Each structure stands twice: as structure tokens, then as C-alpha cells.
Amino acid sequence: MMIKKFHGRMRNVSNLKLQSEVLLLSSYCKILNELFHVQRELTLPKTIVYTYLIKKEDVENFKIYNAKNTKDLMYKSLSILAGDEYFFYELKYIIMAIDLLVKNDILHFGNGILYVLEDKYSSGEFESNTFLIKAIKESEKISDKQFLKEVLSSV
């Protein structure tokens, strides 16, 4: 007896998964491009965390903090990660987006720091709120080791 295999539905499912991954990757590339239009250089751990927070804010369209907050901005921004189960899932897409931008000479990487040499690839104004921009600037005052400790205690 000959059994025919039906691959039509599986092909559609894998195609949808691929399309969703491409969309996710492109959204992270856009966020990174906008982030480095404002922030000329940033360490890799801080880039990863704040890229995710920017996307989370855009997707959820809900802001806990705003520009009126002035104290402990970095800690408040990291508190947004508390209990977030999607951060680790999205981590690979953020790293893939960074890799893609570095391979295409849009971003450069050296000594643990991502940086941009010129604005020719920038797409315009940074659309995130002022709170996250201030939190990113405040995070520059601490080491990556301390920053990662704070991230791990938040997640």
C-alpha cells in the first residue's frame, strides 16, 4: 500500500514562521539604527537590553515611566524587565540584528563596544520616549558587570 505524504500545510506553517522571524529581525534592525542615531556608542550588553526595552515599549504601547522621572532611571528601566518571559526568547533575534548591521558596516564593533561612524544609514528621529534615552545615558556610569547583575536580578 502506498501512502501519499501531504506537505502543503507544513510548508505554509514553516513559511509563516520564517516570515515572522524576518519581520522580527527587521524591526530590531530599525530600532538599533534609530538607537545609534541618538547614542553614538554603547556596550553590547546595554545595547541588547535597551533594544529589547524599546521594542517592548513600542509593542505594548504602555509606558510606566516618563520624562518626569529623574532619579534611578536605569534601575526603573530595568524594572520593566521584571517577570518578562520573552526577553530570553528575543535575545537571539537582537544578536542576529546586531550581527547583520555589523556585517553590512552600518554598526561597528570593537572592545565590547558597538558604535556608528557616521549618520548616513540613520532613518530619522528616535521614536522612543525621553525616559529610556535618559536611562541609557545613566547606564553609561556603571560597568557592564554591574549592569548585567542588575539585569539578572530584574529578570
Kindly describe this structure.
- There is one protein chain.
- With 155 residues, this protein is mainly alpha-helical.
- It has one domain (8-154).
- Helix content is 60%, strand content 6%.
- The chain has helices at residues 8-38, 44-60, 73-79, 87-103, 130-139, 144-154, and strands spanning 41-43, 108-110, 113-115.
- A 3-stranded antiparallel beta sheet has the order 1-3-2.
- A hairpin with a 2-residue loop joins strand 2 and strand 3 (113-115).
- Helix 1 (8-38) crosses helix 2 (44-60).
- It is globular.
- The model has no long low-confidence stretch (mean pLDDT 85).
Give the low-confidence spans.
none
Shape descriptor: globular
Secondary structure: number of strands: 3
Strand content: 5-15%
Taking all Cα atoms into account, the compactness measure Rg is: 18 Å
Q: What is the number of independent domains?
A: 1
Q: Considering DSSP H and I runs of 4 or more, what fraction of the residues is helical?
A: 55-70%
The helix/strand order is: HEHHHEEHH
What structural category arises from helix and sheet content?
A: mainly alpha
**Count of helical stretches:** 6
Q: Give the distance, in angstroms, between the N- and C-terminal Cα atoms.
A: 55 Å
Largest sheet: 3 strands, antiparallel
Strand order of the largest sheet: 1-3-2
